[in-house]
Each structure stands twice: as C-alpha cells, then as structure tokens.
Amino acid sequence: MESTANDWMELDLSVPSAGTYNVNVVLSKGCAVGIYNVNLDGVRVLSDYNGYRPGCERIARETVSLGQHSLTSGRHTIWFVTTGKSSASSGYRVSVDAFELYRL
C-alpha cells in the first residue's frame, strides 16, 4: 500500500535508563520518499524533513539529530507524519533505518 500526505507511522524507542540523551535517527533518502515531521512523545523534534533523493537505483542514508532530551527509562513513542512530497518524488514513503541514543 502506498502512503499519502497525512499518513503516519509510529515506532517505539526503548530507553535503558533515565537520563539526558542525544537522540539521532538514521533515515534513508530515495526517489519515492516524502516530506515528513517527526514527533517524540508528542513533541515535534523535526519539521519538514525532505527524504527525496534522485536516482532510484541507490539509496543514501543520513543521520539526523532529533536533539537532546531528558528521557525516563522504558518505552517512548516516535511518530513520523507525512506532510507532502517533492514534485520530483514518486511517493510519500518514510524510511527509517535506526535510532541512536547517546547518554550525556
């Protein structure tokens, strides 16, 4: 099923112990990836990320900072909400490869 504007994806982020963390997400860019916002526990942490990259034969990965956050141990929710797409993109996909947590 192909996604459209205003579709969303919810992922869980497990935090091993309470503390302050730099939170990164590793995203794939490609010819069918859209523009989207990222929310952590209901708070916008990234706006209008454009995942479009020309050339469907190769995917590029990019590590994007979601900022520094004070997190409790346990489950946290990250939402990706599509807001549109580049005129050259063939889709609205969101492509998440990994999360990175660095305790400060």
Query: What is the count of DSSP helices, taking H or I runs of 4+ residues?
Result: 0
Radius of gyration: 14 Å
Shape: elongated
Summarize model confidence as the mean pLDDT: 94
For this structure, what is the CATH class?
Mainly Beta
CATH topology: Jelly Rolls
Strand order of the largest sheet: 1-6-3-4
Low-confidence stretches: none
Superfamily (CATH H level) name: Galactose-binding domain-like
- Total beta strands: 7
CATH architecture: Sandwich
In percent terms, what proportion of residues is strand? over 45%
Architecture overview:
With 104 residues, the chain is an all-beta fold. It has a single domain, classed as Jelly Rolls (Sandwich), CATH 2.60.120. Helices cover 0% and strands 62% of the residues. It contains no helices and 7 strands. It has strands spanning 8-15, 19-29, 35-40, 43-50, 60-71, 74-84, 96-103. It has a 4-stranded antiparallel beta sheet with strand order 1-6-3-4, with no helix packed on it. A 3-stranded antiparallel beta sheet has the order 5-2-7, with no helix packed on it. A hairpin with a 2-residue loop joins strand 3 and strand 4 (43-50). It is elongated, with a radius of gyration of 14 Å. The chain starts with 7 loop residues before the first strand and ends with a strand. The mean pLDDT is 94.
Write the layout of secondary structure elements.
Elements: E1 8-15, E2 19-29, E3 35-40, E4 43-50, E5 60-71, E6 74-84, E7 96-103
Antiparallel strand pairs: 1-6, 2-5, 2-7, 3-4, 3-6
Features:
single chain; 104 residues; mainly beta; Jelly Rolls; four-stranded antiparallel sheet; three-stranded antiparallel sheet; elongated
